[in-house]
Structure formats: C-alpha cells, structure tokens
Amino acid sequence: MEENVIYTHELTKRFGTFTAVDRISFEVKRGEIFGFLGANGAGKTTAMRMLCGLSIPTSGRGSVAGFDIASQTEEVKKHIGYMSQKFSLYEDLKVWENLRLFGGIYGMKDKEIARKTDEMLSGLGFEAERNTFVRSLPLGWKQKLAFSVSIFHEPRVVFLDEPTGGVDPVTRRQFWELIYRASDRGITVFVTTHYMDEAEYCDRVSIMVDGRIEALDSPARLRERFHAATMDEVFQQLARRAVRKSD
User: Which stretches are transmembrane (predicted)?
Assistant: First the structure.
C-alpha cells in the first residue's frame, strides 16, 4: 500500500507567457483517495490533463501507474479510468451495452466482460435496469453507472473531474460509498471537487491557487494548521492570502 502510483516533480505547463501550472510536486499512494482542490482557473484541469496523458508538460516530470506522462502517454491511458461531470456514457445505448462497449475498448475478453457486467449490476442494484436505455435513467443513477464504467477494467488510477456536480446530498454520499469500495480494492482515486465538505472524505487534499499547490495534507492536519473548523475556512484563508500577495 506504500507504492506511489502518481508522482510529479516541478510539473509545469505554460501557454505562451501564461503559466497555468507552476512547478507542482506531489505523490499519491496506491489505494489513496486524493482530493485536488482549487477555484476555477487555479490550474486543476490543466494538471489533470497532463496526468492523463492528454497534454505534454512544458517542464518538470511525472509518472502515473509507472509510466512517464510525457513519453508514454498511450500506456498511461491504458492503465487509468476517467469520469467527468458530463459523464462519458452513450445515452442511446442500454446499460449493459455501455459496459460491453467500454470493456471492449480496454481490451477485455467477452467472458470477462459478461462476468463483470453481472457483478457490477448486482453490486449497484441495477439488475432490473440491464436493458434500460441510459437516457431514461435518473441523474444520480447515471452518475453511479458512469463511475462503474470508469473502473470496469480495474485501472490502477481513476481520475474524477467534478463528478458529483448537480446531484442531491444523499446521492453524493452514495457516490462516495462507491469511491470507498474502489479504494478498498486498491484503486487510487484522484478527485477534483468544488464541494469543500467532500474534501473531508479524502485521505489527503492539495489546494491549488494560481497554478501552485499552496497546501497539501490530510483534512484534519490542514484544519489544525490553519486553525479552521472546516475545509472551506482553510480554502478561504488561502484565497485571501493569494489576494494580498497580488496587491
């Protein structure tokens, strides 16, 4: 459990004269739930795109699942899962057809896909929805299915980009139960969220401000360090500090 599945050292991304990600360094261990927090424009999405092999760093280095994010991007993509707020499901396919499609994309055998489909639908309580078109599912159910699809091939890391936007608090808690189950199986979960209460569910969190990581630790230690009652208060303190620096 001490294996570093994500590693970065002074990872940087520039667009012309603008530095979107400024020399960030951190490690994430196997099975860890790692929260990646920051306001819009802080650099979270740019950093995640580099870690997913979708954008080449300007400088610095990093690896995901043991593969270099600059020179082994295709291998990185094979060993990760990804889910965005917009989901990645095909609305005009049935539930089981989505699972078969994504299993095939990741090179799984037909028998393995069939077995995993039965297991996953049972675990979600979706057996009765096997032949339902995805467009007919409630938003919360689509969210759970999209997450299950993202880890269907048992990736070493799953990246979740604002995965719980637009759903009610009860559904959010149920979604986090799925995250905990994945973590218990050894899947590393890298999640961005703007819900500060969700930071409490993570083993560790980093907080980005203007492209740099300004704080990184467990939620409890960050609250203690900043003498804050909540993670939202920690975030507000860092934001105010950034404003003072820019003045």
Answer: none
| Structural domains of the chain sorted by starting position, each given as residue range(s) with its CATH number in brackets | 29-55+73-246 (3.40.50.300)
Backbone phi, psi, residue 23, to 5°: 50, 60
Distance CA 2, CA 31 (A): 9
What residues pair up with 9 in beta bridges, in sequence order?
Answer: 61
Q: Which two tokens stand for residue 4?
A: 């570093």
| Residue 8 to residue 52: CA distance in whole angstroms | 13
The C-alpha angle 166, 118, 33, rounded to 5 degrees, equals 45
CA dist 45 and 71 (Å) reads 20
Q: What is the pLDDT of residues 155-168, one digit of tens each?
A: 999 999 888 877 78
Closest CA to 160 of 19, 35, 18, 6: 35
Question: Which amino acid is located at 211 in the chain?
Answer: G
